[in-house]
Amino acid sequence: MATRVLVVDDSGFFRRRVAEILNADSWLEVVGQAENGEEAVRLTAELKPDVITMDIEMPVMDGITATRQIMQRTPTPVIMFSSLTTDGAKATLDALEAGALDFLPKRFEDIARDRDEAKNLLCQRVRALGRKRMATPPTTTPASKPISTSSAAPAPAPAPRISKSGTLKLLAIGTSTGGPVALQQVLTNLPADFPLPIVLVQHMPATFTPAFARRLDQLCKINVKEAEDGDVLKPGWAYLAPGGKQMLLQGRGSQPSLQIIDADESQTYKPSVDITFDSISKVYPGETLAVVLTGMGADGRDGARTLKQKGSTIWAQDEASSVVYGMPAAVAEAGLTEQILNLTDIGPSIVKRVM
Fold it and tell me: Which of 55, 255, 307, 328 makes an SS bond possible with 9, Cβ 3.0 to 4.6 Å?
């Protein structure tokens, strides 16, 4: 059965372009088009699409407001089209907080170098969200409020049993689609005196990571910053890999540091979880807790395997709470995970394991 899509944009040309691309995929069917957020809210209730592609800036009602109303009335997976600018980054993060699950650049040439590749990626992302039949929109939890384990998302049973064996010196987290909301939920559970440094790899454009790091820093009790070349790792600090770059750990002993390098054109992910995890295995062999959260693809599996071989601990998010069960599934199916946890349990379990 084809995934039913509602296309929302104030540009008739762009709506037709997106509709043509999606309808060319046998697994997708565009069932409606809307030219503003108000119309999108109405058509979502009438047509009940499986996925919505949503523009941010529109007359009558913008895409963020529309997304928020849709999530309140008829929860439906939303993928945002946004501009790769500083203002676009803030608006996209606002849209994700409103309930959108994913985003793509509005200019197709920013999605991929090859036009056919860009079209395939768009269809792939829409199909992935179509498989995520949401009963309720994802929730975010402010740092001032404890996360309840009785959320609408199914929780694993029995409660996770967390072993405290082995000394840990680093927490590493890798994620992609659905990651901004997932990272916020995990990191807001960590106390200000969290005793380990944290490295974060989120698939995200270069113009988005500074704004995302600032937002996390405002919400969390720990400190969060976009990583810079030469940063010395400090306990209670989280370092977000810059978009478009690769983040490596270097040095041994009491004060390892970060190396930020240009990504190779041939590399699919910039930043890459695999590349960061692999570098961690050389600096903290057997002393890392690595967590793979929601995301499309398999980035993180090879790096997690290297870490596991060196004696580190690997956790993954479960399917029920993942926006896209790709990256965590790849790690779990490779037999690398010690724990597979619901998103609501990951933050508290990290605290229990580390502290």
Answer: 55
Active site residue 312: no
pLDDT tens digits, 111-168: 777 788 889 999 999 999 998 754 344 444 343 333 333 333 444 445 577 766 678 9
Active-site entry in 62, 82, 203, 321? 203
Question: Catalytic residue at 299?
Answer: yes
- Angle at alpha carbon of residue 107, lines to 178 and 49, rounded to 5°: 50
Q: With contact defined as beta carbons under 8 Å apart, do 30 and 5 qualify?
A: yes
143 neighbors 219 (Cβ within 8 angstroms): yes
Report which residue type is found at 281.
Answer: S
Is residue 281 annotated as part of the catalytic site, yes or no? no
Backbone angles phi and psi of 195, in degrees to 5: -85, 0
Among the options 299, 302, 318, 345, which is catalytic?
A: 299
User: In 203-335, at which residue ranges do the beta strands (DSSP E only) sit?
Assistant: 223-226, 237-240, 245-250, 257-262, 288-292, 313-317
CA angle 109, 113, 119 (to 5 degrees): 65
Q: What three-state secondary structure class fits 254? A: coil
**pLDDT tens digits along 232-291:** 999 999 999 999 999 999 987 668 999 999 999 889 999 999 999 999 999 999 999 999
